[in-house]
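2024-03-11 09:14:02 DEBUG pipeline.ingest accepted 1 chain
2024-03-11 09:14:02 DEBUG pipeline.ingest length=120
2024-03-11 09:14:03 DEBUG pipeline.predict start
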Amino acid sequence: MKLIDMRPMMWVDDVEATINYYKTILGFTESYFENDWQWGWVRRDGLEIMFAKPNEHIPYDGANFTGSFYFNVDNADEWYERLAGKASIYYPIENFEYAMREFAIKDCNGYLLQFGQELQ
């Protein structure tokens, strides 16, 4: 018995706008949007993230997550250069004592996205 994959489902106010942000700013290349369900997804490099506007049966008071979404990347500096002028930087790129070079942004919903590269 094993776990095969994990696809986060992020609750958002505007699914279509979120998909456009992830494609335009973060470079996700594939996507799907179902207007009737207010649900969709984006995909890049084997990663998939789903977005949904919760229905009336789910308590929802805007985008809220007590942690962050952490992306391991091959080149943190290139990612930082790509995003620095386009995204809301939460903290700038730096080396950390736990052997990671990383930075963080806030996406269009306020979710914290961290990008880190292991230091050799």
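2024-03-11 09:14:41 DEBUG pipeline.report The mean pLDDT is 95.
2024-03-11 09:14:41 DEBUG pipeline.predict end
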